[in-house]
Amino acid sequence: MKTRNFSRTIPKTTLPLPALGAIAATRALLGVGIGLLVSPRIAQPRRRALGWTLLGIGLTSTIPLGALVFRNRERPGLAAASSASI
């Protein structure tokens, strides 16, 4: 019986601390917005308005932050190939 060895490396991402804080804040806004939308404790009109607002802010800020993360990601195979050709 043959065993296969699949090895994958996880891409390394380097982010400045303010960007990491912004990502954490975005996740928090999304979570609080969703929590407000499903919570019955606050009056419905106020809760829905605030929940949708926080959810919208969280979603719209996710797009540029996601682009920042993918731009700063290092691909393991490319680094080795570029250093080998020098």
User: What count of helical segments does DSSP give?
Assistant: 3
Oligomer classification: single chain
Run of helices and strands: EHHEH
Please provide the count of β strands: 2
The Rg value, from CA coordinates, equals 20 Å
How would you describe what is shown here?
It is a single chain. By secondary structure, the protein is mainly alpha-helical. The chain has a domain at 26-73. Helix content is 69%, strand content 5%. A two-stranded antiparallel sheet has the order 1-2. Helix 1 (17-38) packs antiparallel against helix 2. The longest helix is centred in the C-terminal third of the chain and has 28 residues, at 44-71. The N and C termini lie far apart (42 Å).
Helices and strands in order:
Elements: E1 12-13, H1 17-38, H2 44-71, E2 73-74, H3 76-84
Antiparallel strand pairs: 1-2
Helix pairs in contact: 1-2
